[in-house]
Amino acid sequence: MSVITKGRHDIVIKQEGKINAGFFKVTKKMYPMYPFHEEKIKSDEYGEIIKPENYKLADVAVEGEDNKENVLIKKEVEEEITEIHEQPTKCIVLQRTVQVNCQVHYIDFEGRSDGESLMKILSQLKPRRVIVVRGDEENTSVIAKHCEGIKARVFTPSRGEIVDATSETHIYQ
């Protein structure tokens, strides 16, 4: 290969008169590449060590022709192998009375929460406006004071009272 060094760039040019020395065509091409080192994974994402021999398929070797003698011998060997792998078992059935000590509890999954959790949720949400409905006066006033503490506009309407909850602050008036 020759390199033209005139000018600003180095250009690699193939030699025109190059003669292949081998009889067969070379199929492997080497492309220019930055040095790269591939790390072999020794364990999976759960930390278990990967053993390649566990994933190799066993090669079945064909030994000679299957004549009558070989077939009979193979059948005897297979019967012996199956007999060795069978373990003796015995099934015993007993009836016993078992005393179960347990309780049944109803767990309410209606989306309700206790006061402390509600205060924590409101503090994290930091709402600008809050309308407190459905509760007795004492609990409603506690929640209203907490919301005023986090600088929110609080509305606590009584039954039948109408609250204007529209906010059109983005409109030029």
Structure notes:
GO terms for molecular function: RNA binding. One of its GO terms (cellular component) is mRNA cleavage and polyadenylation specificity factor complex. InterPro entries: CPSF2 (IPR027075), RibonucZ/Hydroxyglut_hydro (IPR036866), RMMBL (IPR011108). Its main location: nucleus. Keywords: mRNA processing, Nucleus, RNA-binding. The longest helix is centred in the middle third of the chain and has 18 residues, at about 70-85. The strands form two sheets. A two-stranded antiparallel ribbon has the order 1-2. Strands 3-4 form a two-stranded parallel sheet. It has a domain at about 125-160. The protein is about 25% helix and about 5% strand. It is flat and about 100 Å long. The protein is of the alpha+beta class and about 170 residues long. It has three helices and four strands; from the N terminus they run ββααβαβ. Strand 1 (about 1-5) and strand 2 (about 10-15) form a beta hairpin.
What's the count of strands?
4
Radius of gyration, taken over Cα atoms and rounded to an integer in Å: 42 Å
Structural category: alpha+beta
| N-to-C CA distance | 78 Å
Shape: flat
Uncertain residue segments:
none
GO biological process, one term: mRNA 3'-end processing by stem-loop binding and cleavage
InterPro entries: CPSF2, RibonucZ/Hydroxyglut_hydro, RMMBL
Subcellular location: Nucleus
Family: Belongs to the metallo-beta-lactamase superfamily. RNA-metabolizing metallo-beta-lactamase-like family. CPSF2/YSH1 subfamily.
